[in-house]
Amino acid sequence: MVEMLERLSLPEIGTLGHLERTWEMSILHLAAAALARLWEERGCSGIPLLFRAKGEQKPYHPALLEKAIERGRKRKRAKKGQLCRWERLPAPTYAGEIGAVPLHDSLSDSSFVEASIYDRHTIAGPFLDGWFAYHFEGWSALAVRLPAPDKDEAIAVIIVPQGRQDDWLAFQVELRQVYYGVLRRRRKKHIDVVGTPGEGSRLNVEEEIRKATFDHVILPQELIARVTGQRTIFQPEILARYEALRIPRLRKVLLIGPPGTGKTTLVKALAADHVKNGGYAVYVFADESDGEHSWHRLHRALESAVSSGLPTLVVVEDLENFVSPKDENMQPILNALDGVATPDNHAGTLLLATTNAPERIDKRITQRPGRIDVMIEIGTIKDEALAIRFLERFLHTAYDPQEHNAIAGRMIGQVGSHIREVCILASIHAVEDERDRVTLADLAFAHEALLAGRKAAANLETCEPPAAKERAGLGFGGKK
After folding, report:
1. Topology, domain 188-377
2. pLDDT, tens digit, for every residue of 316-340?
C-alpha cells in the first residue's frame, strides 16, 4: 500500500472522478495507503489489519468519546474495548487535502442527536472526515473518515493490530451503551416532535400537550377507559408475553371518527399523563404532499423509541397521510406494521394514531389483523347527558342548567366541536345585543346558524362565482 501511495497523486485521482464509484474507490485506496504509512511512522505495535467501515458516527463524536473515557475511569477494573485516550491527528502531507479540515457533521444537542432549530446549548457534531488515533490499554488503533460523494453516509478506513478486532468491536458496543444511556436520561419525561405541525412551532405543540389533562376530555368514561387501557403494553407481564411469542413489543391503536369528536384532545391528555409518569412521547406530523417522506418520519419515531429504552408513546395524527393507497411502495410500511421489520423496544411502544378518513388508508392495513391491533370509534354525541357536559364546559361561568339544558337534545348526532362553536357564537350574539346573560334563544340561534352555514358550504353550486362554474369540467365543482 505504501508503494501504491508513492505512485498515486491527487491530480491523477481527480482525472478518474467521472464515475462516483471510481472516485470513491480511488480516494478510499489512497486513504488506506496513507493510513498504513502513518501506522509505520507512529511505530504502532502489531501486524496491521486494515478494514473499511460504513457511516457510523459515534467513534468520531468528540463529546461522546470523552463520555466513554469518563465512564471507563469510574470502573474499578478495565473492561474489553475500554478507551483510555483519543486524539485527532493532522492530515499526513502525503495524503493531500484528505481530512485536512476539521469539518463537523452538523451540530448536536446534549444527547448527541442532530440538533434542531429549537435546541439550545448545542455542541459540535461528529467529525465528517479526518484522521484519528484511539489508545487502549496495551494497544492503539488509527482511522480516517471520508465523506462519500453525493451520499448521506460517510465511509472510514480503520487499522488495528491483528488479533484486536474483537476489542475494536467491544469499543463500538461501549460507545453505543454510552449513547443510549444519555438518550435514556434525556428522553425520560420528554416530548419529541417529528415533522412540521402546520401552524405554530414544535415548542407550542409540546407546551399544549403538557398542559392537557383528562379534565379536558368530554367523552363517555367507558370509551376513555378503553383507550387508556391500551397502556397495558407497558406492564412487565405483557412485555414478557410479547417476548415469549417472539413478536415486537409494539401495540398499534387507531382512533376513528369525524373531525371534532375529541380524538386529539384525548390523545394529548394521554400523552401528558404518560410523560408525567416518566415515559417518552413522540408526536409525528405528516407532509401531505410527500407520503413517502412522511413514512420515513414515522419509522424514525419507532427507532427513537427503541434507542430510548423507555416506555414510549408514538402519536400519529391523520394516519391516512402516512399510509395512503396512492403510495407506490407500501412494502416497507407493511413490513414495519407486520413485525417483519418492526423496531422492537424492550420497554414497550404504544403507537396511537387518529384518522378522520379511514377510507383513505390502504385496506391492506385496516383489513388485515395485526397491522392495526385495535380500531376504536370516537363518534358523535349519543345522549343528552354528554351534550350537557359539553355545554357546561364551553359556557363555563355563564352556564345555567335550568336555562341551557333544554337544547341538549338538539345536540345529539353532532360532534363536540359543534357545541363549542355554538357556545362561542351564542356568547357573541348576547354581547352584540348588549346582554350579560346567554339565553336558550342565543344557543338556538347559534345552532341553526352553524347548520345553515355548513349546508350552504356543502352546496357548491350556491358558493361558486361564475368564473369558477365555467371551469366545472376541470373538477372545480358542478356536475361531471
Report:
1. Rossmann fold (3.40.50)
2. 988 888 876 666 667 777 777 777 7
Output phi, psi for 238, to 5 deg: -75, -40
Q: Are strands 130-136 and 312-316 parallel, antiparallel or unpaired?
A: unpaired
- pLDDT tens readout for residues 247-259: 999 999 999 999 9
Q: In what order do the strands lie in the sheet with 349-355?
A: 191-194, 280-284, 312-316, 349-355, 250-256, 374-377
Between CA 291 and CA 326 the distance in angstroms is: 9
195 secondary structure, DSSP code:
S
Quote the CA–CA distance of 173 and 177 in Å, as a whole number: 6
Q: What is the Cα–Cα distance from 87 to 131, expressed in whole angstroms?
A: 9
Residue 97, by phi and psi: left (phi above 0), alpha (psi -120 to 50) or beta? alpha
Q: In terms of residues, how long is the chain?
A: 480
Q: 200: Cβ–Cβ under 8 A, 6 or more apart, which residues?
A: none
What's the Cα-to-Cα distance from 253 to each of 317, 324, 335, rounded to whole Å? 12, 17, 17
What is residue 251's three-state secondary structure? Answer: strand
The CA-based angle 273-277-282, given to 5 degrees, is: 65
The structure's pTM equals: 0.70
Residue 173, exposed/middle/buried by CB under 10 A (0-12, 13-18, 19+)?
exposed
Type and span of the H or E element at 416 = helix 416-432
Per-domain residue ranges of the chain = 2-186, 188-377, 384-460
CATH code of 384-460, in short, is 1.10.8.60
Quote helix, strand, coil % in the chain, to nearest 5. Answer: 50, 15, 35
Q: Output 372-375 pairs: Cβ under 8 A, ≥24 positions apart.
A: 372/252, 372/253, 372/254, 372/337, 373/251, 373/252, 373/253, 374/230, 374/252, 374/253, 374/254, 375/253, 375/254, 375/255, 375/256
3-state secondary structure 117-176: CCCCCCEECCECCEEEEEEECCEEEEEEEECCCCCCCCEEEEEEECCCHHHHHHHHHHHH
Q: What CA–CA distances, in Å, run from 221 to 14, 217, 224, 226, 252?
A: 70, 10, 5, 9, 21
pLDDT classification of 198: cutoffs 50, 70, 90: low
